[in-house]
Amino acid sequence: MLMSCNYFDKKKIDTKEILDEELKSINWNDVDEYPTFSICDASPDKKICFEDFLRNKLNENLLKQNIVITEDVNDTVILKIHIDKEGNFSIKDVKSSDVIKTQIPKLDSILRHSFDSLPQIHPAIKRGQQVATEFNLPVIVNSN
Fold this sequence. Notes:
The chain has one domain (about 25-140). It has 4 helices and 7 strands. It has helices spanning about 15-25, 45-65, 100-105, 105-115; strands at about 35, 75-85, 90-95, 120, 125, 130, 135-140. The strands form 3 sheets. A 3-stranded antiparallel β-sheet has the order 3-2-7, with no helix packed on it. The protein has a two-stranded antiparallel sheet with strand order 1-4. A hairpin with a 2-residue loop joins strand 5 and strand 6 (about 130).
């Protein structure tokens, strides 16, 4: 008497299906390594070093500008920064209040040009691959 069971049946594994499942499980909003500059390599927190470098670059450029205002300004501007997987930097959006837009109408342009001469950026890393990333950089505008 012979009996058969399905114990030895092999199922074909679809690699595309496995890849699709794996891609769904990855949190693409979180990266393993944030974008950075070479000068931040020795820093214990590269993200803070990177953001501080950008803010310092902005402050240097803003201090060079001859900005005349008619009333005090103390507000925050939000820059939406995009760094592609090759390390190219761009500002996707500048969000500011009506007060800032009225008092400093050219601020958007000034902020965008503040980053014209950045050093090379090392893009973000996710699972060993260079990836594009976006983040918000708050910038305090204070006329005092």
